[in-house]
Structure formats: C-alpha cells, structure tokens
Backbone:
C-alpha cells in the first residue's frame, strides 16, 4: 500500500512568496495532520482534520498559514506571504478511527522548506 | 505546543550495548507510540502500545506502556550502527486523535 505522499520534497522560495505544500493521506484514513519540525521546537502540530473538516487549528502560527482539505485524498498547507522563520520541515500524517483508536499515526517524508 | 519530556536528549553508545530511553507526561495517555527518524525522512513507526502495562517487542526493540499511564519506555538490545537516528515517543489522550510528541532522543552508535 502507498503511504502518505507529500510534495514537493524540497521547496526554496524568496521571502514574500506564496508557498503551497501538498499531501495525499493513506487511502481510507479519516484523520489528517500537519506538523512542522525544527531543531528549536521539535515536532509541532499545526492543524488536523477529521473527515475533511478542520478540528483543531490552534497550532497554526498566524494568519499567514492556512490549510484546506477539499476531499478525502488531498490536503494543502499554504503560507502567504512566506518569511525566513517559516523555514522548517513540514510533515503530513494520517490515521484511521476505524479501529477505535487502535491505529497509529503514519507520516509522509516531509517537505523541506527554505525561505531566503 | 505541548511536548512530552523525553530522556536522554542524546547518547553515544558502543555497538553491542543495550539502550534505554523514556518519556514522561503530567497527564494520562491511552496510547503510546515510538518512532525512529532517519535524516531526510519522516518518522517511522516502531512500536504502538494501547494498554497500561503492555510490553511489546519488535525484533531487538522492546517498549512498555507504564502502569501509571504517564510514562513509556523503549529499550534497544545489542545496538548496531544502523540504529543511529532520532527516536520519538508520542502520546494520545482518551477521546482525541491528537498526538503529542516527545523532544526526541538522538542516538549515535560507535562501531
């Protein structure tokens, strides 16, 4: 089975530009999570969705960040305008509630974002 | 955001030695997960624990769900060079699918 698929793997952009990160969760998974990883702050949960609906976006740093999940197989995380401090690795992860909490979180390979 | 206390932060060990690391929380969890992350990759699940007191093995790895439900332990026996990486714990409270991650243990194995 295909795992969580993220694109692009690497993104380099200039400050002020819009950045869009993409994620395809594992088929059949109804929960999708966006995490950000930095050396200083570790793995931070930004937002998560259940059945395409945002459940908790309290981790989203500021209004420059937005996330959508238009359908069960696709989600985007957008940063507009981007700033150098947004440089990090962004991970998408998914899981299913079908096992009543007995299913772990599966991660994609991340998008390494560099904002110059 | 909230993070779990994970220790040690880093460790250097000789090949063949056993390794122990742990995570503690101030609140009760009903699921503990352990992950390994290699450079440039996403975290990969090693072991999942769903019951207090549960002891689960995956090859040379053994993890336990603490009886108090506020801690978990990961042991690696007879370490080998490919065990190098960052190990993360993650916990989940009852009634939510939101996982909280530990700060990571960076393991380096000296051949």
Residues:
């Amino acid at each position: 089975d295909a795992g969580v698929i993220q694109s692009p793997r690497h993104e380099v952009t200039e400050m002020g530009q819009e950045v869009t990160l993409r994620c395809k969760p594992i088929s059949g998974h109804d929960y999708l999570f966006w995490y950000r990883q930095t050396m200083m702050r570790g793995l931070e949960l930004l937002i998560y969705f259940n059945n395409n609906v945002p459940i908790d976006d309290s981790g989203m740093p500021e209004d420059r960040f937005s996330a959508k999940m238009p359908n069960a197989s696709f989600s985007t995380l957008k940063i507009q305008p981007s700033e150098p401090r947004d440089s990090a690795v962004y991970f998408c992860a998914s899981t299913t509630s079908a096992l009543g909490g007995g299913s772990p979180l599966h991660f994609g390979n991340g998008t390494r974002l560099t904002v110059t | 955001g909230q993070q779990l206390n994970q220790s040690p932060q880093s460790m250097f060990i000789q090949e063949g030695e056993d390794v122990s690391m742990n995570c503690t929380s101030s609140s009760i969890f009903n699921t503990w997960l352990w992950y390994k992350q290699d450079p440039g990759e996403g975290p990969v699940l090693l072991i999942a624990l769903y019951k207090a007191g549960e002891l689960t093995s995956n090859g040379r790895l053994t993890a336990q769900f603490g009886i108090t439900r506020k801690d978990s332990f990961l042991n690696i026996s007879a370490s080998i060079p490919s065990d190098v990486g960052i190990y993360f714990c993650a916990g989940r409270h009852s009634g939510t699918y939101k996982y909280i991650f530990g700060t990571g243990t960076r393991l380096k194995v000296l051949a």
Observations:
- DSSP finds no helices and eleven strands in chain B.
- The longest strand of chain B covers residues 85-92.
- Residues 28 and 69 of chain B are 5 Å apart (CA to CA).
